Fold each of these.
Amino acid sequence: MNDILPSYLRDAWWTPGDAVDATTVHDAATGAVVARVSARGADLAGALEHARTVGQRSLGALTFHQRAMLLKRFALVLTERKDELYELSKHAGSTVRDSLSDVDGGIGVLFAYSSRGRRELPNATVYLDGPVESLSKDGSFLGRHVYTRLPGVAVQINAFNFPMWGALEKFAPAFLAGVPSVVKPATPTAYVAEAWVRILVESGLLPDGVLQLVSGSVPHLFDHLGLGDIVGFTGSASTADGLRRNEGVQSGRVRFTNETDSINASVLGQDAVQGTPEFDAYVRQLMAELTAKAGQKCTAIRRAIVPAEAVDDVVAALRAAIEERVVIGDPHVDSVTMGPVVSRAQRDEVLRQVEVLLDAGGELLIGSTDAPDVVRADGTVGPAPEGAFLSPMLIGFPDPATPAAHRIEAFGPVASILPYRTVAEAADLVARGGGSLVTSVATHDDGFAQEMLGRIGAYNGRVLFLSREDARSSTGHGSPVPHLVHGGPGRAGGGEELGGIRAVLHHMQRTAVQGSPETLTALTGVWHAGAATSVGRHPFRKSLAELRLGDRVSSRSRTVTLDDIETFAQFTGDTFYAHMDEESAAANPFFPGRVAHGYLLVSWAAGLFVDPDPGPVLANYGLEDLRFVTPVSPGDEIRVELTAKQITPRETDDYGEVRWDAVIRNQEDALVASYDVLTLVAKEA
């Protein structure tokens, strides 16, 4: 792999004409040359324009569900070849266990967004946000919020520690939103990014223009960005500050979100003394975060905040765990559990920051700044001067308020341990980090947990509470999941990624749309009350292919009697006094006397609107947004109108989902109840 690493631009592989200014990347364990990286001469403006034109056209032709299905196919292709990616990642110091969070983690993001996209988004290109708002007395003028995709390109600048997960957790929501991506990996691990991109390209699944890769520096990229473009950055706070000062970002034309390094904390509860499950879980987690990826994680624990009386116990337990379980060496050796940091330059930087911490009053309690003996590729044990190896290090600070402990990050297998005496002091120490991606709290005391959340929530993007109930099932302090937000305030960047569909919406524009019910129905693909309806053949006799928005059934009326109410009460066991006791019901401010059960009315409504014979309607799978508005007394009449509100074909099945607008009214045309009925309907009769 001594040739210059190619970029993938405008749907073709490209390399510079010469190796001038190329950066040489070395194996983190042996120092052997792995790749040379350069994007000198790359037509970045052309790549961006290709994304805005060809990529936008490709994704614009697909619905959310169709994009989601492609994400699943991408995940399956990468799964088939993940062993190649494991092997390649070893050059960067990653053990196979480390690769589970990067390679498998990235694949997991694709699967997660495929699933959520089909489950939570419509099979359309517009996403509705919130309920419809009536802006006129007669309902002829409405408003609601919608999301439509940005017209530009998503530029994704990633850190070296997660060349696959870090890229795919940005790419997946952008792709699902319908925005093409230009991925810029960090140079030290760009060869891993090139590998997963090449696998997707070779699969033939990528639509034209939706994914491009720049292998090398992009010094003038921001000069070509404009309104409709979005940048997602992961890296150092200092680099993020520089990018944020770009004129396009400052003016608001270019959206910019960033996730930067943070001094994350883990708090041991006052109740979690030695011998408790919480103490043991805390030590296991601290060791895992100290050694996984050799501590090179933006979510790693940098500050262990523990009761003053427990410091010695935690240090002793952590030292014993490291001595028992940690084997430092070349990741190509199966017995190795912790590899080197990504490069000798990174090793030297970590050691420089450790010296700063020690000079500030810290004491090295575990580990050494000397180069450790390691397991070499041939299985022998000894020094490896060409490698970037470090020992796990724990630094103690007698004064927990020492500024350096809360400001300096040694981005490697390094953490500090800080004593506290009160809950307020523990929370104050967390806050001194200036904003973090995550803080974890190990406790079995709900009162302690409640007070901590109230005090530290505003300083964190995520808070994990670790106890005996969830210690085995917990995904871990340092593991963001696609379902929950990843990001944090202050030093952590102030940005937000992941979080389910929230991340998709980051790549879309929310717009307030106003118009008539007819217009809003046409714009959104959802029927709005007041838009045209069609009453003819019963809509339950129509397949998905035949059904249209606004198809309606209007039922006959049915009179509710006291016998009906009492029969329903006895049959169901629901003898609540409002249905059975005239005097007590009349004393209730909401009822004129005995009234019909709400669920009696909903049951009757089904009987009034249903077509009972076998047909395209396969199943009723739920009700949503049920509201009872006007009580129904004995002698009142009810009728129901059922209107096709939203039609969602499933991409992988012979049926789809139909949402029906159901409205129950009484003899005076007053609204009794409203709700949505959800059914599964065959695509063809």
Amino acid sequence: MSLSNAMSIGQKAVTNAQISINTTSNNIANAETEGYQRADAVYDSASNINTYGTSLGTGADIIAIQANWDSFIEKQYLAASADLSSSEALSKYLSQLDSIFSQSEDEGLAAAQDEFLSAWSELASDPDSLAERTSLLSEAETLIYALNSTASELKDMSDTVESEIVDQVATANELIDSIALLNEQIAASPDNYELVASRDQAIRDLDELIGVEVVSSSDGQTKIYTETGQPLVEGSETHYLVYSGSKSTESLQPGSAYDGEISYSGTSSEEILIEFVSSGADGTAQFKVSLDGGETWEEDANGNTLLYTADGADNSVTVAGVEISFSGATADHTARDRYSIVAKTGLYWESDSGALVNITPMTDSSGNDINNRTSGGSIAGLFKVRDDYIEPTLDDLDDYTSALIWEVNSAHSQGAGTEHHSAVEGTYGVDDQNAVLSSSGLAYEDEIESGSFTINTYDADGNVTGNSSITVDPSTESLGDIVTKINTDFAGSLTASVNSDGELEIQGVGDTTFEFTDDTSGFLAATGINTFFEGSSASDISINSYVAENKEHINAGAVADDGSVSSGSNSIAESINDLLNQSVSIGEGSSAQSATLTEYLAAIVSEVGAAAAKAETQVTCDTASAELYAEQQESVSGVNVDEELVNLTKYQQQYQAACQIISVTQEMFETILGVM
């Protein structure tokens, strides 16, 4: 019996040595394989047997091939890795954004703006000069090109980010499927350590896209959750990420009976949270607004919470570029009723019912992540750079350009060139010529105030033949009403009409020419009459074709009180040049601020540069943290070839010794058989 046991021990030892050699060889072969976890054969002493009252050992068994992996370290690594992926995505695009706004003394937007405004000073020095007008147009084209190209680059960057988000969400969903499938396979083969290693690597890959939390159960199954607690993988069940367009949701109080609808138009990088502060019908109930998920509420310049009145489309309110109205209600709003408007594409988690839960990354006014939104992984970094930097920077550039256009046009529209007008056509059209000017669809309708403008007419010899002041009330009068006033006051001299594009046209009758002056209403600039620029944003700003094709209508001077335009008149050119140092209103609503154009542009450049530098520093910190945990995990699970070669030699010797056991035992058997 003891010889049989010895033979059995030897045979087991041979088998164990072969398995150990195979496992060690596999470790060496996968030393450079990403995600591979070093495996060891786990030995356990076999049960003893009793022979003739003596307890004898029966050798050892390999009970498992076990991968080396530290779950605690991995949890810390996943958190650090998700932060690193987010900061790397953010830094990558902020670096590009910074390069777009790269400035020097002679190049960049600031230099182009200064050269353009300074060109008006040169024109003021010689207001009748054709050469100075040509030079001015050249400087204007340079500034326009800089604004157009910068806006185009920002839009292209935003589109690239959007495309990358779409691709990464699709990849994340593929990984979710892969992890669920690996869970199934591991359930069927729990001892397959290579499947476990593959799953751990898939989890790392998913974590780089969207930060995850991992929960392992005793049966070997792994559950994957988003940072905000939504399940992505539970065993073999999956929940997907969805990249979806704009939408609104409501959260009414239990006793609220409001049955109307909220409507909105426009896009915004901000998510708009509305909370009613008073009960009442549309037209009376008021609400406040938060742009950071309710962490803070929008305030006016005095620190008071801004309140808006819920009403229909005719009295809609605009928040962060989104026009909001309510309609169709037969019951009142209730205080604390809430509505959320996401006027952009966002990231959502899909529930079992198909309902979408918004997990789009969001930051507060200090740049800190909002708790109930995902913040880790490259997808989060892409959303942050889009919503917190690219789109707001484009909005700021548009606000700057809009202010530049308005201020230049406001001055230019009241000036005169070296020749009188025989016909003019506005560059801004209304949607409805019978709608009041304040709600007509003009790009600058909010700039029109109650006031008046004056038109002077001249005969073929340039003599003044008449003038009249046209009053404007934007809250009660339409473009059609202004047309009627012009046609009435200048019957036989001028004809005014609205063309098919909703633009105002004024034409002299016969040899009659005309000029404009003293506009206290802003009507001329708002309709694009006698202006220098067209457009209203960085992407569409251009020189008014009327001016570009007729340099004599670049207005350097102004009409005198007697209706004449003196040679050498330069007051308009000087006033436009003064914009270099003059504070103007830039932006709309609660975000409007008073600054010079130079100061505002410098602030845009400075903010982008500071954000890029901060993001680069964050990458350095996050890299150090991720590398620390990666190295710790590598020390546990990584393959050290030198150590494995030592192990290989050890198992080779173990194999040789086991064979010797078998050989000696066999000789002993043969001796006994020979005696018998």
Amino acid sequence: MRTHYCGELRSSNNEETVTLCGWVHRRRDHGGVIFLDLRDREGLVQVVFDPDDEVNFNTADRVRSEYVVKVTGRVRARPDGTVNKDLPTGEIEVLGKQIEVLNAAETPPFPLDSHSGVGEDVRLKYRYMDLRRPEMQSKLILRSRISTALRRYLDDQGFLEIETPILTRATPEGARDYLVPSRTHDGKFFALPQSPQLFKQLLMVAGFDRYYQIAKCFRDEDLRADRQPEFTQIDMEASFVDEKDVMGVAEGMVRHIFKSSLGVEFGDIPHMPFSEAMERYGSDKPDLRIPLEIVTVSDLMAEVEFKVFSGPATDPKGRVAALRVPNGGELTRKQIDDYTKYVGIFGAKGLAYIKVNDKSDLEEGLQSPIVKFLPVPVRQALLERLGAENGDLIFFGADKARIVNDALGALRVKLGEDLNLYTAEWAPLWVVDFPMFEQDDDGRLHALHHPFTAPSCSPEELRAAPETALSRAYDLVLNGTELGGGSIRIHDQSMQAAVFDLLDISPEEQREKFGFLLDALQYGAPPHGGLAFGFDRLIMLMTGAESIRDVIAFPKTQSAACVLTQAPGEVSNEQLRELNIRVRKSVTE
């Protein structure tokens, strides 16, 4: 039906006769001449209809926004003074010779060239209209190209694309499963996979050596800007590898897609231990574009009379830390109060601060309600440790280490955003040397990643000191977002037994949840490891989208619903009877 896409015409097409198909993006009548901006997925081109051709002119005069039309005409240079440098096709226009209306359109529910005042629910209800907008199409087109690029890269690296089941069984992976009742197995349920973790390990046992897939995963959890109940994961696993091998392949893939898709080349990507990331940035996914750092000052505060500081400073599980904001003395009291409320979200009971007006005057040059509780030597040591200068503002956190890290880590990011402190466009980082376990308030151990992550010690050393054991795990972070993570897996039965024992997973529970994997490990499992990237999050970062929903064609809302299809929905009693399920109505008191 067409000879060219609208957006691909250039001055090199001058004097060519072309046939275009697309949507009328905009119609203008300028003194008896009709201008149509015709749009397809490749962009816009201006089509002009003169009144000399009465039939086609009248047809062009009748079309409205979002009509679907077919146009044949001659490409010509735009007259002097009318070139649009903001448009790739802005040097030319098409003189329309024939126009055919392929389909009329109702008035759109919102203007496609100005949607800023449109609620997200309306955009999602009419998603097929929202997706016509050039900025939305460009995001999904880039997503497709990145998908193609990473497949080519992994193919070149010897990886095989192998699909794993969608209908499987529930496994403990930290979130609720989506369950699917079985009609043929009364009272039993499938679970939709939270990840292909166990199956990709089985593929290594099976000898496929290098596996990948772009996998759909499902988690029934509370949503946020970078989460969806169903999401896409770049999943890979390889045999006879160590951390360096896996990280090398993954890093090469990220470098390849950034260079080929955005023209961005990364320098050396630093490696940072988990403990250092938490100490300096309060997060295991620090945004290194922000130059602010958290500094521990517990030793300086251990003997002060201010119990808010001395208590956590002398608590083995506590921490007192400071965050220096250069030129932060310009912040108003209202801004400081707002930041105090903000850190309260993360459990902080307050946000102490000191304004450094004159660092040479330790008596009168420091402005804060807490200065009077700090001896002069402590003030001096504090300013020296932080490298404070006149005009700076110092925020403090004092509580359990976890609360201090969460609160000051989030405050650091918030200040970076509010004060535009970014020093680079991209800041990738590998976080390594994660703890093997985390401990709850009852002293029980939990796997920081999952129970198949290999520790960096022997089974005997693991049993002797599990609280200090490190894992062979690694995460790739970009601009404060965890792109993905993975680990070397346990392939030795004695090590797996030690981990299960420390996690207090009984033999019966092991068999119930992981029996098929444990059986496979008995038949010559190779050393193996892998990694998974959140594909949606990666595209969100690369396109500069504010939400993960903007890079998924048909996403769910914050309440995990689809307003387009009205899913989830009720089903018939007949379907429920086939599944031997009765719906119990909830009672609202």
